[in-house]
Amino acid sequence: MSVILETPLELSPSLSLDEVAIVIRGVYKQVLGNPHIMESERQLSAESRLCNGELIVREFVREVAKSEFYRRRYF
């Protein structure tokens, strides 16, 4: 499944879990520069909150960028 979308995908309650997973993978690829991250490197709490509608995509991006994994990798 390709992560690259031709048009921006807006996160809405009508999206399937597969579509939300595409958004999540796209965020990881954009922020971390690597679409294949290990399970231990994922922000599972933030992913869950995004899926539940408790976070918007912008907040999810912020959480990934503020993660310990990001800091260790880039600073």
TrEMBL record:
Primary localization class, coarse: membrane
Keyword Membrane: yes
Keyword Coiled coil: no
Listed Gene3D superfamilies: Phycobilisome linker domain (1.10.3130.20)
GO biological process: photosynthesis
Gene Ontology CC: one annotated term: phycobilisome
Bilayer topology term: Peripheral membrane protein
Alphabetical keyword list: Antenna complex, Membrane, Photosynthesis, Phycobilisome, Thylakoid
Subcellular location(s) of the protein: Cellular thylakoid membrane
Domain spans labelled PBS-linker: 1-75
Family: Belongs to the phycobilisome linker protein family.
PANTHER family, per database record: PHYCOBILIPROTEIN APCE, PHYCOBILISOME 32.1 KDA LINKER POLYPEPTIDE, PHYCOCYANIN-ASSOCIATED, ROD 2-RELATED
Protein name per Swiss-Prot or TrEMBL: Phycobilisome 27.9 kDa linker polypeptide,phycoerythrin-associated, rod
